[in-house]
Write a structure and sequence with these properties.
The chain is mainly β. It contains 1 helix and 14 strands; from the N terminus they run H-E-E-E-E-E-E-E-E-E-E-E-E-E-E. It has a 4-stranded antiparallel sheet, with no helix packed on it. It has a 4-stranded antiparallel sheet with strand order 7-8-9-12, with no helix packed on it.
Length: about 200
Amino acid sequence: LNEHQSVFVKTICYRYSVDPNKRIECFPAPGTTQLASRCARVGCIYDERPELGIPACYFPRRSGYVKTGTTKDGVVLEGYPGVANPYGDNISPIFFNYSQIGSTVNIRIGPQGRYEPPLHLPRESYNTDAGFVVEQTTETGVFAFKVKRLSTNQSIWDTTIGGLMFSDQYIQIAAFIGSSEIYGIGEHAKYQLKVCCVVESNV
């Protein structure tokens, strides 16, 4: 270059995107208007030209809660800044803990003193050949946990997909699952443990 020549440098920055098959929709309500601006306002990522069936507005992988300590009530989780719950402010802190009753894994996530419906739920121990281990991880920069089968080390519930949200009227937990046949998620008074599960073709 000589003294009469100039150089124009253009820097293009791409925000970290998520594999289309691993996106968690930020505004799942159909017909949401002004989606791009609403998406940016809560810290989600907007895709101007998504493929058919792929969310246009979705949570970044690093969204949810971060581990800040451990107490007698469990792991202390504080809301991760930068990504807001689109349906109300996230409660922070919340607590994560788990226990095992025979072959059953009981995982609890929520704030202290949260109201629980007064249902009588049996707490007897049921032993089968199945055994499970719960692993905590921060591999994506936020708190996540995995439930693995001891006999095969197969992950059957993996929340590293992100997107944990916990507000007064909206609770969201997303996970990679090992099968479309799901039993025993949640505590309820039904006589059938099978959970209805619709697996999208792009998952």
